[in-house]
Design brief:
By secondary structure, this protein is an alpha+beta fold. It is built from six helices and 14 strands. The strands form four sheets. Strands 9-1-8-5-10-14-11 form a seven-stranded antiparallel beta sheet.
Length: 248
Amino acid sequence: MKEYLVFRLFGPMASWGLPAVGGDRTTAMQPTRSAILGLMGAALGIKRDNEVALTDLQQSICIAIKQCVPGSLMRDYHTSQVPSHNNKVVHRTRKSELGEEKLNTILSSRDYCCDGLWTVAISLTPASVVNLDKLQEALKKPVYTLSLGRKSCPLAAPLQPVLVKADNLKAVLDTEFPALTRSHKEDALWLGFNGRVTYFWEGDKAGIEDVKVLTTHPWDEPVHRDRWQFKQRAMHQLSVEEVANVSV
């Protein structure tokens, strides 16, 4: 049997960043690998400039996700000021940009998932230099404040991290957590559960056996954090109908 660290993510707003084009910052409907790595790194207290520790973490964990409720999409339009393009001037900081005498106003957007609910399962790779007990303790008592993709997207419920042993990845992701409201039935009504859930996982495609399994290649594997560079990875997914838990 394989051991997993399982926890849930819920909040009024989440932003799972996708490759940015121009001023638009779109979001995936499920947590990206880079977002989960960032969450775990913050819980462990790893600083952004500690490349060795971040790389060790990245190579140590394998991630699977169950999208229980994708939430609704919200787009936030806002304006920002930027200087005119000048080949002779290189701005390395936002302060440097705002120091220009003439600034232009541009429109940009940020996308968010509202009231989404996800279950995350972490397993260790053969090259792991961490253990699940340490990761569990870090999630219970994180060094840095945790968020759902952006600092402006705080958690709205405890992560409730638990260690689970199982041979079936789907059974692991189906781990039940306490109701967010007074009952699971009320949760389903409040969150607008539509009866369909989606599983996402990396590694063995047969981790969840079904003829309807799809394989995609999202750009969410960190390569260079200072330059915000990412590469593609193989991710498998399966959407199925699921009866909501309506127990009181």
